[in-house]
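lol forgot to send this yesterday, sorry. struct tokens for the thing we talked abt
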């Protein structure tokens, strides 16, 4: 489980950086927040997390657009139920499509756009953004993953000057990662 969390966190950071490179004004705002709250004299650490809400918004928005698990853990209906007007007989396997919920225009304004500002209030309805699942079956590593992703992204922004090598948008389609067996995986359309 720990290895799985490292890969999903790494992929989320890939998506976050690609979005920041495609939206330099957002990257600049994140850097400004780091400079104002932390400065250049010390590296960001876990005690600084509460001072950097915009960087948390970037992680939340990245997880909204690119959840690590498109479908959440399957559930079984323990009794005959009706959900959203649909009859679910007892023992039906129910899958929650996080990707679809995170891009639903009924729930999100301009859902296909990368807008960290949508999280500026700090609180999000738990069943609206659920990249780690929700309730008692949510990912047990949610706190660790959030902390690791934030500290890594903040360190990458603080320690390096990031810029695109061309004006062409950063395209993550085709980017390859290795799975737990060491085999290459690619993001395909």
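and heres what i got for the seq, position by position
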């Amino acid at each position: 489980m720990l290895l799985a969390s490292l890969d999903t966190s790494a992929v989320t950071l890939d998506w976050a950086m690609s979005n920041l490179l495609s939206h330099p004004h957002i990257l600049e705002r994140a850097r400004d927040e780091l400079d104002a709250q932390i400065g250049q004299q010390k590296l960001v650490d876990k005690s600084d997390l509460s001072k950097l809400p915009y960087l948390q918004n970037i992680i939340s928005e990245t997880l909204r657009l690119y959840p690590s698990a498109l479908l959440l853990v399957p559930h079984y209906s323990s009794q005959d139920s009706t959900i959203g007007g649909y009859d679910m007989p007892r023992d039906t396997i129910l899958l929650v499509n996080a990707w679809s919920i995170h891009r639903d225009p009924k729930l999100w304004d301009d859902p296909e756009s990368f807008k960290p500002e949508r999280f500026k209030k700090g609180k999000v309805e738990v069943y609206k953004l659920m990249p780690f699942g929700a309730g008692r079956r949510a990912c047990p590593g949610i706190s660790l993953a959030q902390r690791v992703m934030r500290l890594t992204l903040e360190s990458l922004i603080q320690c390096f000057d990031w810029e695109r090598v061309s004006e062409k948008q950063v395209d993550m389609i085709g980017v390859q990662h290795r799975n737990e067996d060491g085999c290459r995986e690619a993001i395909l359309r």
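The domain at 2-69+109-186 is CATH 1.10.630.10 (Cytochrome p450). anyway ping me if u want another try
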